TrEMBL record:
The lineage of its organism: Bacteria, Pseudomonadati, Bacteroidota, Flavobacteriia, Flavobacteriales. This is Metalloprotease. InterPro entries: Uncharacterised_pept_Zn_put. Keywords: Membrane, Transmembrane, Transmembrane helix. The chain crosses the membrane at residues 21-40. GO terms for cellular component: membrane. It comes from Flavobacterium cutihirudinis. It is a single-pass membrane protein. It is found in: Membrane.
Length: 282
């Protein structure tokens, strides 16, 4: 992706040089399973890190400060550019629809982080917390995605995930998330899961809309990188790898095919009114 020398957002909080709080000792397979089953975290900001600590038992209270490497600095600059792209594109889309876009913050961290939605660890995967309207990301997640679960990697895979989480911010601003949670009340687990899938697929669609309006900065292969990441984090792909079989009623984020389809639809149309995942998932 063409990003060097472009505008960087001021709305990034880089906490990678100072990470503290309860950090789970170890990780291993349990941590990876929790990461995958909650990948992209949704917009609920669930404290998956707390669950990981309970399962593993041991934890330690620690606070570390470390300088960032040149690679870390460059990655932080890249994230700032991607966030700036989202700010510019969504501000324009909202304005065209008679609304005002409220810019979210994006927090980079390592290990663990405290949020308005509670504490979380890197095992949570990237997530959006509606309580403080911030996106939280431990960039180490992307190496796991590539080396352990077959995604192509590349900078646009990271851009896709950021855009997906910004999609959850869009849903918060538009009231979609609140309506979804209300609709889940009284539903069976399977029916409630369908609504969760619709929310996640719509966030993928919004990521595609962002990419549609950012095509002048894309390199050959960027969209393939995004689709590879979407494929790797489909519920069916994760369940097949982790438990050897697939249980569709337990899906909360959508299948690989669905995630790729809705990203591609957003990319092709660039029309936020066509993100009709709730109508089509029922």
């Amino acid at each position: 992706m063409k990003w060097q020398g472009r505008r960087q957002s001021d709305n990034v909080e880089d906490r990678r040089g100072l990470s503290g709080g309860k950090v789970a000792v170890g990780g291993g397979v349990i941590g990876i399973i929790i990461l995958l089953l909650n990948v992209f975290g949704g917009e609920t900001g669930q404290t998956v890190g707390s669950a990981l600590e309970q399962i593993q038992g041991g934890q330690t209270q620690t606070e570390t400060a470390a300088p960032l490497s040149k690679e870390d600095e460059e990655m932080g600059n890249f994230v700032r550019v991607i966030l700036a792209d989202n700010e510019d594109i969504w501000s324009k889309i909202f304005e065209e629809n008679g609304m005002t876009y409220k810019k979210p913050k994006l927090v980079l961290f390592r290990g663990s982080v405290n949020t308005a939605c509670g504490g979380a660890s890197s095992a949570s995967g990237p997530f959006y917390c509606p309580g403080d309207q911030k996106v939280y990301m431990d960039l180490g997640f992307f190496e796991e995605l590539k080396t352990k679960f077959g995604a192509k990697g590349g900078d646009f895979a990271i851009a896709y995930v950021i855009a997906h989480e910004i999609g959850h911010h869009i849903q918060t601003l538009l009231g979609t998330s609140a309506k979804m949670r209300q609709a889940q009340e009284g539903k069976s687990e399977a029916e409630a899961n369908k609504l969760s899938v619709a929310l996640e697929l719509q966030a993928d669609f919004y990521a595609g809309v962002w990419a549609h309006y950012n095509q002048q900065n894309l390199d050959t292969g960027d969209i393939d990188e995004a689709l590879s990441a979407a494929n790797a984090v489909g519920d069916d792909a994760i369940q097949s790898k982790m438990q050897g079989h697939v249980v569709p009623d337990s899906f909360t984020h959508g299948s690989s095919e669905q995630r790729m389809y809705w990203f591609k639809k957003g990319f092709k149309t660039g029309d936020i009114k066509q993100g009709t995942t709730f109508e089509e998932i029922q």
